[in-house]
Design brief:
The complex is a heterodimer of chains A (260) and B (373). Chain A is α/β, with parallel strands linked by helices. Chain A is built from nine helices and ten strands. Helices cover 68% and strands 8% of the residues of chain B. Classes of the chains: A alpha/beta (260), B alpha/beta (373).
């Protein structure tokens, strides 16, 4: 696409489940090495956007580009090559419950690299250490807490040193301190891996801490109604719906104090 | 430079005791990484005071390099050598710092402990909880007879449907085939003596006394027992059972009792059905291959079946039904917290169910023989 810094570009995307249209005419681009937030109230289709970015759902119309490659129109082999450079953290962690943490992280390495078993184990230990889970290699997902499962899921997402990292509600279900630590971790991973990070969330604290850029989805008009740095949006947006969301309903009340 | 293999060159020790390590080539997960062996040997023999890195010819790098350096770091620590990271790429330094940010909690790492088999016997396979479970089921059943146990009739109806009507097709198929197989096996032997009419006796007695209830039991263990275990196991994983418990609703009464009752009600009906179809299958072979007329076959069958052998089969099927339901529910309630353990629970329910059926049938055979029935 036009901007050489754009890593993921969404162009005129319309998302639907059967006849039910979730979002229409979505346009945004994610710059390389930035943390991009997909935000909006519950039910606005945030997670659906993420599923379309990685091909779990197919868009009704429009295209998703990774760099110059049209992911939506790409052949299966090409898609696989793109997805291998993308790491995904699912909402509930989605760790494979029959494998230990080291096996969970090592499985993609086993499939896609020629490393020996010991080397895979070492790399898996490194990834777990990066998310603060050193020593938990031989635990099963059911034996650790929810926050730890999230972090282990993150370790699996970064197993293959992805260029892009997609996180679906990373701080959902975490206490404020754990969720803050996870935010710090996301920023550190961005700085050290240089990865592009797309975060789907509605946690305001996270949005302001980690977001470099964002898109705001609205459930009623079914499209993006705002975009840009979350802090800028808070300071300068005049849209009542955006203000209401970013101030936890304190401003932008449709009944009175609109357009704060 | 970028496509070069990853390489290490160990230099000489400088005047200040620093050992220089030159890293070159591409260090990526795809290409693998060399072993730290040469450096370890050099550290052990020449005992440098510190390690310095030369990365001028270093190409692309990813986690492979960081993993290698973590190894080296551990090595340096054990030999009390300082590892000077300042020459490394900034990204590598950051990742190393991040990996060390949360130090390992002492005692968290797993070590395998060997337990003698006799000690494991008492704790594995949930032997203690199995005994407790059977006890709880027994007391719940007692409350049921006193009409103080509670469950929803709707639940019972759903289970009855699942393990009754919906089991008919598979029971039909298996029973007819078993009847036919018995008739075949018997026919080969009996025709040598011109006694093919006794194929009807053989099939009738075998099916009514043993095969009808055993085959139904095994079918039900496979489709319903495992189903019970998977249902209850999933309910355990998703905390539905916890939700019942905290509302003060005993899961044994609400979940286990309806399943046991349903299977005990349906098993005898399925067993009668299987008996009839087994005889039909035998008759098919007898009439089509042994020159017997249908009337002959039916009269011989009716003469062979006694009420005792018929009742024995039915009584056993009720008992088997209870065993299958208890095995299925037990394994479901013992299920762990992960999706893998639900699968294990279902498998274990089938194995337990079939073992119990066969063992109980053996016991019945001995018992009936002793009692002269």
């Amino acid at each position: 696409m036009a901007d050489p810094r754009a890593h993921i570009v969404v162009h005129a995307l319309t998302l639907a489940y059967g006849d039910r249209v979730v979002l229409t005419d979505l346009d945004f681009s994610v710059k390389r090495g930035q943390v991009f937030i997909v935000m909006g109230p519950s039910g606005c289709g945030k997670s659906t956007v993420l599923r379309n970015l990685i091909g779990l759902d197919e868009p009704a119309k429009g295209d998703v580009f990774y760099g110059d490659v049209n992911f939506t129109r790409a052949a299966a082999g090409e898609r696989e090559a793109i997805l291998r450079r993308v790491g995904v953290l699912y909402q509930s962690g989605a760790l494979w419950s029959s494998m230990t943490l080291a096996e969970n992280v090592g499985f993609p390495l086993e499939e896609y690299t020629d490393l020996t078993r010991d080397e895979i184990r070492d790399v898996a230990s490194l990834k777990l250490a990066l998310v603060g889970l050193e020593g938990f290699e031989d635990y099963y997902p059911a034996e650790i807490s929810g926050g730890m499962q999230k972090r282990a899921g993150l370790a699996r997402a970064i197993a293959l040193d992805p260029e892009a990292l997609l996180l679906d509600e990373p701080s959902a279900g975490l206490d404020p301190v754990s969720s803050r630590l996870l935010d710090d971790l996301i920023l550190q991973l961005r700085d050290s891996l240089g990865a592009t990070i797309v975060v789907v969330t509605h946690e305001l604290a996270s949005i302001f801490t980690i977001g470099d850029d964002s898109v705001f989805l609205d459930a009623e008009t079914r499209t993006a109604i705002a975009g840009g740095s979350p802090k800028e949006l808070l300071a300068h947006s005049t849209d009542a719906r955006v203000r209401r969301f970013l101030t936890r309903g304190a401003e932008g009340d449709p009944g009175g104090r609109a357009d704060g | 430079m970028l496509t070069l293999e990853p390489n290490i060159a160990v230099g000489r020790i400088a005047a200040d005791g620093a050992l220089s390590i030159t890293l070159s080539g591409a260090w990526t997960l795809r290409s693998g990484f060399p072993s730290a062996g040469p450096i370890a040997r050099e550290i052990a023999t020449s005992r440098p005071r510190s390690l310095v890195f030369d990365v001028r010819d270093l190409g692309a790098w990813d986690s492979a390099l960081v993993t290698f350096l973590r190894h080296l770091d551990a090595l340096c620590e054990s030999h009390q050598v300082a590892m000077r990271r300042d020459a490394l790429p900034v990204g590598v330094q950051r990742l190393l710092a991040l990996a060390e940010a949360v130090p390992e909690k002492p005692g968290v790492r797993r070590t395998s402990v060997h337990t003698p088999w006799i000690a494991r016997l008492g704790t594995t396979a949930g032997s203690v909880s199995a005994v407790a479970f059977v006890g709880e089921v027994a007391s719940a059943t007692w409350r049921l007879t006193r009409r103080s146990a509670r469950f929803r009739i709707g639940d019972l109806a759903v289970v009855v449907q699942e393990c009754g009507v919906q089991a008919l097709p598979i029971v039909t198929l298996i029973s007819i085939l078993v009847g036919m197989i018995l008739a075949f096996v018997g026919a080969v032997q009996l025709t040598r003596f011109g006694a093919q009419i006794y194929v009807a006796d053989l099939v009738a007695i075998a099916v009514v006394r043993e095969m009808g209830c055993i085959m139904t039991g095994i079918i039900m263990a496979g489709r319903t027992g495992s189903g019970f275990a998977a249902q209850l196991g999933t309910m355990k994983v998703t905390q539905e059972i916890d939700a019942l418990t905290t509302l003060g609703l005993p899961s044994i009464e609400f979940l286990v009792l309806p399943r046991i009752v349903a299977l005990c009600l349906m098993m005898p009906i399925l067993c009668v059905y299987a008996d009839v179809l087994g005889i039909v299958g035998g008759a098919g072979v007898g009439v089509s291959m042994l020159d017997l007329t249908l009337v002959q076959y039916v009269r011989e069958t009716v003469a062979a079946i006694t009420l005792t052998s018929f009742a024995t089969g039915i009584a056993k099927s009720v008992f088997f039904g209870a065993l299958i339901a208890i095995a299925g529910c037990l394994r479901g309630m013992q299920c762990g917290k992960s999706s893998a353990s639900v699968g294990e629970a279902a498998t274990s329910a089938v194995v337990t169910g079939i073992v119990l059926i066969i063992a109980a049938d053996g016991l019945f055979a001995v018992l009936l023989n002793v009692l002269g029935i």
